[in-house]
Amino acid sequence: MNTNASSEFEFSFLDEGFSARDIVEQKINESSSTDDRDAFYVCDLGDVLKKHLRWVRALPRITPFYAVKCNDSRAVVATLASLGTGFDCASKTEIQLVQSLGVDPSRIIYANPCKQVSQIKYASAHGVQMMTFDSEVELMKVARCHENAKLVLRIATDDSKAMCRLSVKFGAQLKACRGLLERAKDLGLDVVGVSFHVGSGCTDPQTYSQAIADARCVFDMGVELDFNMDLLDIGGGFPGSDDAELKFEEITVVINTALDKYFPPDAGVKVIAEPGRFYVASAYTLVVNIIAKKVLMDDDSSSDEDEGTSDRTLMYYVNDGVYGSFNCILYDHAHCLPILHKKPKPDETMYPCSIWGPTCDGLDRIVEQCDLPDLQVGDWLVFENMGAYTVAASSTFNGFQRPDMHYVMSRHVWQHVQEINIKGLPSPAEMTSAFEMVACCSRSTCLELPSKQCQTRVV
After folding, report:
1. DSSP bridge pairs for 380
2. Active-site positions?
């Protein structure tokens, strides 16, 4: 493995035959020879490319505008920029990040319906025209501050089947849409389309179908008012790992069917989406170290009995927690599963355990209950699928620093990203072979998913 510094970010090439999992092992071995056994991430950028090819195959009509809020790593954003995606930005800072990578303003949608006046002015000054709204007050701000805005009306959806509901905060009810469109007309504003978001962690694909049908109704209202409605934004809510309750392809079948019905290809409507976790969740592996341990004895157990399976509970403390990477547990309803680094012996006793973060806050609990062997201070635990809504919202509360990042990709993946950047996506005939090549170069595992929430897996 050797380090390569592109013009935008630093990463390491994987040697032939090596995967991101091998880099995890290498970093653990390097750290284990010192006392500085800090938590760290390994991010496989090849996994990001694999997800992009998967998206293009499943949703060929829909241009992804990556939701930067999910993970604002420069390496991830630069990789996606090279692949030609658009970007969903919610603030001036996110717009600055994306434009610093040379992304054209036409590939940015300012998808925050509640914007600060100064940041609307910033978007105007830097050529970002597409932006969402869901209220009359927002229309009035845009009318004062952005003469070239291309507005997208965000509508509320039924997000009752989502883990993280968004329509309680954003989106106009259907009954309010005509009034908002009429107000936009009075203000001389240009409304070009409709957007919605079914919520993160959506568990019912039919929610997309109903939202697309509702968007069609609002489109028709806009056409009646002589707006040139030519953009549909179907938001996010797509799963980022294959162990999700609802599979990505189950969602895409419903979406494609609804689009063909309400927005057929000859309708002249551009369709975009705002995937976040889909692109980055599975690319990141977090490795933490056990820094402390407590043994709780069962009061009812007999002291002269042989130490067995039920006389104790173990508490493990690791060097990242809910104020850091595991904030996803509080804010994103994530269930983080521990994976053992050291393979246990076949007859090794497993104990009921809990896993805690390093801060002095009693809420800093990562796993309430799981079964683990009798581990020691200095041992490692691995958490997969840690790329979405983790590092982006982490803090340094109590003085604990964020984990180091190690970005990797194979030379084949790097070459493929460069080819797409220059020539565009491969033809449909070439897409399957490209996808298979990237899948072989990316991280893989033959381990089965746990059968229950806190069951341990072994690297």
Report:
1. 289
2. 360
